[in-house]
Design brief:
268 residues; alpha/beta; 3-stranded antiparallel sheet; 24% strand; methyltransferase activity; transferase; Methyltransferase domain-containing protein
Length: 268
Amino acid sequence: MTHSNYIIAGGAEGKERLAVLGNVLNPGTLSLLQRLHPEPIGHFLDLGCGGGTVAIAVAQSELARNVTGADFDATVLELARQDAAEAGLTNIRFETADATALDLHQQFDVVYARFLLSHLTDPPDTLKRMARAARPGGLVLVEDIDFSGHYCAPASSAFTRYLELFVRAARNNGQDPDIGLRLFRLFHDAGLEDIGFSVTQPAFHEGPGKWMGYYTLDKISGAVLRQGLATQSELQATLDELKAFTADPNSIISLPRVFQVWGRKRKV
């Protein structure tokens, strides 16, 4: 995967957006991980780790003795390294890696990815690569979106326009913003066993999580403009309207539905 394939801007500003998501989702992720893998994890891989919020949370929780975060964005990885160092963590490392070219075999007890596969043009191949990277009996855990479940109340034309722009920008890049609905089948196709899933969807009337839609529209503005989906003035008008709607204390905005799907690699 290259930077041009990813519709959401990365770097330091992108890391701030991921940090908000991490604060909302990480407690549920850690709880699920502990339930699925109650014994200490020897080696944990967070593929497409972004700003490292999950990897750092796993390292801090002591669920895993050794944590590796891998991502293609060298800038955000360096920021993640700084965060880990400031937290005094010695059981974590970050590596630059392309998830679509992952070529590791039986190295990790848990292979994890959040919001990665929905940004790829060949997610089945990357999921199979994740399975190969797991040790026999190891756990593969993916959290990814069903964007069609994203909602607000009351109705907002700016929110609806945001949904349209995100979906069109992603599909124009050959990506699937509703991949959450397909993950259960993809895990079967990847040869994994003991497959299960759950669905979570936080919604907000206040706080940082409520602003995720606005932040996301802002971060896909480059892709929207490059693809000619809106003019600069049209995009700015939508951003302004969505900002006002989000600031309204009487409005509710959700995250997209998040599918948590897991399976185990067949033991030899």
